[in-house]
Every structure is written in C-alpha cells, then in structure tokens.
Amino acid sequence: MLCTDKLSEGFNLNRAGIVINYDIPWNPVRVIQRVGRINRIGKKVFDEIYIANFFPTEKGAELVKSREIASQKMFLIHNTLGEDSKIFDPDEEPSPSNLYLKINQNPDNIESESFYTKILNEFQEIKTKYPEVIENIKDCPLRVKVAKKSDKDELLVFIRKAKLYIKKVDYPKDNEKDYEKNSEIQEVTLEEIIDRIRCNFDEKAVELSNEFWDYYEEIKNSIEKDFNKKRLNNSDLSLEQKARNKIKTLLKSDLEQLKEYRDFLKTLLEDLTDYGTLPYYTLRRIANLESPENENKIQQIITKLEELKDELGENYLLKEIEKFKNIQKEIIIAIENRNI
C-alpha cells in the first residue's frame, strides 16, 4: 500500500509486516506513528516487524541533514519517554516506554526535572561560577587521564568512537587474589556513575595507581571489540570488500580502454579503504561491475564508470576529505577513583 501521512494515525494495518519510509520527517514522532499502524498492541500477527528507511544521497544529506536531525530527536525520545522499537538504525538502544508509568506514578515521587535537565543546569552553573574551567576544556587533549580521591578503587573510561561508550571496573581488594579483571568490566550509563566522577572546583588530582594502565588497556580493548563487533555485523562490510576487490581487478588490468579511468578508480579505492563515504547503492553498483572478459563487457564497465564519475564528480573525494578534517577524532577520558 502506497500512502501519505494521512494513514499514519487511527488505522489498523497489522496484517503488514514492514513499513517503508520513503521520506524521513524532522519530527520522528511521525515515523513512530507510522510504525504504530503495523505494531498493534494485542493484535500480533508477525514475530518480527521491519522498518526500512530511505535517506538522501550523500550530496542531498549535506543540504537537508534530515538523518542527523531526526536521529538526534529520536535519541531524546529514547532517553526521555522510552521507545521499544529501533526506528532509524540497527545500533539504536531503545528502552521500554515509560510514558504509561510516568502518567500513573504517585505525583509525590515524580522528579521536577529530568536527569539530562539537571546535568545541563549543573553545567550552566559551572559555566557561570568558573568560566576559566570551560575555557580550559576547549584546549583539552583528545586523551585525558586523571585520578582523584574517593571511597573505593575503580576506573571509569569514556570513549567517543562513532557513539559514546562508558565502562567501569572495580579494582580487587587485597584479599581477592583470584579476581578476574576482564569479567568485571561493566557497561554503565552516565546517570549511574555521575556521582562517581563529580569533584569540587579546588580538588587536587592524585597520582595514577600502579594498576591503572592494565585496567585502562583492558577497558579500551573491550570497547574496541564492541565497536568492531557492530561493524562486522553490518552487511555493508562484505559488500564493501566486494567493491574493493572489483576495483583492484580493474586497476590490475592492462586494457587500453580503461587507462583513462585509472585515476578515478584509484580515488574510489582510496575512499573505500580510508574514508567510507560511498552509500550502499553506489557500493552495490561497483561490486556488480562486470569482469573485463570481452569487448562487450568492457564497454558495459566504461558506461557504468562514466555514470559514477558524472554523479560523484571526478575529484569528489577532495571535498569529503575536507569534511573529515573538521570531524573530531576518537576521544578518551579515563577517571580513576582511589581510596587513599
């Protein structure tokens, strides 16, 4: 069924198992409403339902930024009200919907402001009282390691690598000789550990413990595994490898007809190897290029390379590289609490 948003409310379409969003509005609630047509409470038809989203091409996305805007708003919905579906991305982390619980809980127990509002207010207070702290943060290196006094020994590590990872490990006590460090690495939320990282303005840093580096490396390796696991689960990766192999095959060819496309093929290979800016549709087109077995196949390859060159631009990667220069690299903040 092809329809407009006219059908996004009030219709029961649970006999369908997939919703395809050909457009992504800036307000993700509209997308949630569409999903609600097939995800009907008490009227289960399928064990799993699927959401397919169309996003603009790289060129279009730069102008309208619909994905960034909708994803940011979806993040707020997940964290404020909860939402039990993954709407835009397989890596989303939905939480059970809390709206019903919020409505029915005792008014005396309702917090006057959300956790994120409290943190924002706390930040604004620091900004007002200690503006020099905010200025110093601007010049912070991408790797920060610090220790402070506390009531127990532990390490908390924040790593921003495409998304924010927060992990902690409690150090063993002297009598816990058989303690296995790896098994105790926990993934935590900012809300759970905010009290463990707070400190006073005039609080002095202490020396890192002798155990710090071992635990720090273990947490870093743990996060790296999580990151790679998510990437390896992505079917785009195998398609990317096929596309890379296809370009390498064409570059190894000594065919006279392909010589004028060598620079463009090298640009595509550099993109696939170092930057990964090409969308799924383009990867598939490259992976499906013919092998240059005969004159007819060679002509088909040339036609498709011409199409790609016209669409992307012969030197399109230069602009993408400029954008990458403005993107901050991986950030790691390690905070060690020491009971000394």
Give a short summary of the structure.
This protein is an alpha/beta fold. 46% of the residues lie in helices and 12% in strands.
Architecture overview:
This protein has helices at residues 28-38, 58-64, 66-80, 99-104, 115-129, 131-138, 190-197, 212-232, 236-252, 262-275, 280-287, 295-312, 316-325; strands at 18-21, 50-53, 143-149, 154-161, 163-170, 186-187, 331-338. The chain is 46% helix and 12% strand. It contains 13 helices and 7 strands.
Side by side, the strands of the main sheet go 3-7-4-5-6
Helix content: 40-55%
H/E series: EHEHHHHHEEEEHHHHHHHE
Strand content: 5-15%
- Class derived from helix and strand content: alpha/beta
Count of individual helical segments: 13
Q: What gross morphology would you assign?
A: extended
Query: How far is the N terminus from the C terminus?
Result: 67 Å
Number of domains: 3
Tally of extended strands? 7
Q: Which consecutive residue ranges, at least 5 long each, have pLDDT under 50? A: none
Largest sheet: 5 strands, mixed
CA radius of gyration is: 26 Å
The overall pLDDT average reads 78
List the helices and strands and how they pair.
Layout: E1 18-21, H1 28-38, E2 50-53, H2 58-64, H3 66-80, H4 99-104, H5 115-129, H6 131-138, E3 143-149, E4 154-161, E5 163-170, E6 186-187, H7 190-197, H8 212-232, H9 236-252, H10 262-275, H11 280-287, H12 295-312, H13 316-325, E7 331-338
Parallel strand pairs: 1-2, 3-7
Antiparallel strand pairs: 4-5, 4-7, 5-6
